[in-house]
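INFO  loader      accepted 1 record
INFO  loader      residues=148
INFO  predictor   begin
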Amino acid sequence: MRARLVAVALMSLLAAGCGTPNDPVEERWQSRTASSSCGEVRLKQGEQMQKQAVREITCLQRALKNGEGAELKVTRPTVEGDPIREYYRLTPHGRLELYTDSTDDQYSAEKWSFAECYTPEWWAELSCDPHPTPTADTSTTRPPTATG
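INFO  predictor   done
INFO  writer      dumping tokens
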């Protein structure tokens, strides 16, 4: 009986630490209101997103044109082969957010990062208007930034 109580207590302690992100960027991603999915792309070493994800990029462009939100997940390997996951999130207001999960890249800071831009010109990179139009949401009135 005592061994069973110890096992239950240990499992409770382990479960308390699981599933709770401690990275503020990851928390922001996890707590977002999800948008329509444009799918997922897995790039191999040397592959370029603009060539391998034509359908997915078109989906994001269509959402931008229609004033809708959309998301795309892209996984690409580092030079060493570690996976980097990028989440492109287009808001209904035309802002492109890029969440990057580098937690499995042993040669990085192994954390999440965030960048945003306005008037996205191309989806394979953050290429934005250097002077975004101000909006009511002051957290979205700055040019591309990276945090993390």
